[in-house]
Design goal:
By secondary structure, the protein is α+β, with helices and mostly antiparallel strands. It has two domains: 27-140 and 302-363, 3-Layer(aba) Sandwich (D-Maltodextrin-Binding Protein, domain 2); 142-300 and 377-409, D-Maltodextrin-Binding Protein, domain 2 (3-Layer(aba) Sandwich). It has helices at 2-24, 41-54, 67-78, 94-99, 112-117, 120-123, 148-153, 163-175, 191-203, 220-233, 246-254, 267-271, 315-325, 328-333, 349-352, 356-365, 378-393, 399-409, and strands at 27-34, 58-65, 86-90, 127-128, 131-132, 135-138, 142-147, 183-184, 209-210, 213-214, 260-264, 283-289, 297-298, 304-308. Residues 1-25 form the signal peptide.
Amino acid sequence: MLKSFSRALLGATLIGAAFVPQAFAETSINALFMAQAAYSEADVRAMTEAFTKANPDIKVNLEFVPYEGLHDKTVLAQGSGGGYDVVLFDVIWPAEYASNNVLVDVSSRITDDMKKGVLPGAWTTVNYDGKSYGMPWILDTKYLFYNKEILEKAGIKNPPKTWDELAEQAKIIKDKGLLATPISWSWSQAEAAICDYTTLVSAYGGEFLKDGKPAFQSGGGLDALNYMVTSYTSGLTNPNSKEFLEEDVRKVFQNGEAAFALNWTYMYNMANDPKDSKVAGKVGVVPAPGVAGKSEVSAVNGSMGLGITSASKNPDEAWKFITFMTSQATQNQYAKLSLPIWASSYEDPAVTKGQEELIAAAKIGLAAMYPRPTTPKYQELSTALQQAIQESLLGQAKPEDALKGAAENSGL
């Protein structure tokens, strides 16, 4: 009796075991992305669907927040226990994330093929203190977009090569009555303004930090802010620029209400889409201008990476997802939204076709990318600079005084 009971129990156990792999095969991972610029939410969902089709044992739960909420959401989730496995992070955060153990070091997971195939500049997005904290994913800088038709009507043959030329051309356009305010910027009190400011700092040969201390309050850092204030007060810049983020700039440019705009890669194909844009076919793009005697072009490093959080219980599955999302095949497929991190992609007609002008600008702009300061206290520094820019634009403080205040409030 006991023997037959044991046999029955064993049989039941084996039958149960046969169902275990199916019942417990699926691993769930949570991933945090941003709902703006570069890849759209729909595109990230489509990429993820392709991943889960190839990896049916991994379920990916996606969450999207505006860029402005990405940092805080990532940091706050760390202490909550649930949290995320994969997070999108900006080039400005690895120092802080590494110091506070937010992301794991994935240096040992990066293969030789990855090291050789990815553009050298892209690695700066995820590296800090000799270690890699993820894979670069969005390789980006700001370019100068211009409306070819408006320049032609104004009798301007070529887009500006210097920032002073930009102001001169904008004045011609304004004086001819073609546009009241020809330039549009994203100068809201947000990180967007710091990206525009950094582009100008790079043009004027400025420095953010020297020996770990603020150095932006004089030299090129001061010149850059003075340029912003002059552009704003001259009446050449759209007065709403002080509240604009990049999406606002895109909409104004697409409506034909700006002759010049500084923005990320993604605007090129969106502004050229006749379904949504009034300026389709008239969009010009060049690297951001330089300053006579100081620089030929200017550019900010606006790249982003995908990393595994230290709270993740499924780092292997998380890495599998990251390598799929950052793979050359995936990136080439979506190259009309964000240019690939892979060097050989730029020789692929599938990537370059229809956006030759953008690729030509990218080859110069991406090589000139200037970093925002690398410091674990970046958030404090950025907040202080955002405030200084706003105060200066609104005439509440002279640029030199505003930057001195920012240096004192930067936490450095």
